[in-house]
Amino acid sequence: NQPIIKAALEAIGCKVYISRQPLDLIVSGGHLGDFNLLMEVKMPGKGLNAEQQLFWDGWPGRKVIVTTAEEAIEAVLGKELLR
Asked: How many CB atoms lie within 10 A of CB 14?
């Protein structure tokens, strides 16, 4: 699901870098505005591993766990903009 999520984010104008460690994606707003967001892509029902959880708990910036392209887009645009 990661390639689909990356493509969906790029389609709405985000810049997306695959990092793999400690989280999967670094997302920048591109023409959508000035923001950076760390994104972990998981299969439904899966959670963070121990290393990821340690990083997650200590990272003060924006971060989100997503399982679908729709969730990723909502994380970037906000649910209210998708209605």
From this structure: 23
Q: Give 6-75 as a DSSP string.
A: HHHHHHTT-EEEE--SSSSEEEE-GGG-S-EEEEEE--TT----HHHHHHHHH--S-EEEESSHHHHHHH
Q: Which two structure tokens, joined as six digits, stand for 75? A: 């994380």
Q: Which two tokens stand for residue 23?
A: 């989280």
25 within 8 A of 38, measured Cβ to Cβ:
yes
What pTM did the predictor assign? 0.86
Q: Which residue has the tokens 């997302």?
A: 27
pLDDT in tens, 7-47: 999 999 999 999 988 899 999 886 667 788 999 999 999 99
